[in-house]
Amino acid sequence: MSENKVEIIVGGCVLAVAIGFALYAGKLTGFAAGNDNYELTATFRSADGIDVGTDVRLAGVKVGRVTSMALDPATYRAGTTFTVRQGIDVPDDSAVAISSEGLLGGNYLEILPGGSPFFFAAGDQIEFTQGSVSLVSLLMKFVGGDDSGDAK
Questions:
Q1: Are 84 and 64 in contact (CB under 8 A)?
Q2: Which tens digits make up the pLDDT trace of 33-49?
Q3: What is the distance between the alpha carbons of residues 142 and 106, in angstroms, rounded to a whole number?
């Protein structure tokens, strides 16, 4: 009988540690409920390299994450919804760009703040966007010797 009590106590401790770890991991990654965030939206011509869960950064600091992506069938643009931490006011003339961490790094959404004294409210759409740049197309232009910008 004492073995059963020990097994139950150890099992309960293991279960409590597992639940605590799951809650901590959820809070750390931003997937936990109860985060104080507000949502903004933006559309991109090309959203290559980003997906749900991608970081949203401002001045290199993570301030949110992408929560949903969908194709707008009317405009053929990639619609994204992302969160920004409460207390971080984004000026309403700001832009959003898909940036790369480097040649081998991943992509993230970068908020490029404007100078307006007015700020976006929850649910607003950011109009000024810059989609991702394809490394392959840049290399093809370089190798192909695109002369369209040269003065002759």
A1: yes
A2: 556 899 999 999 988 88
A3: 22
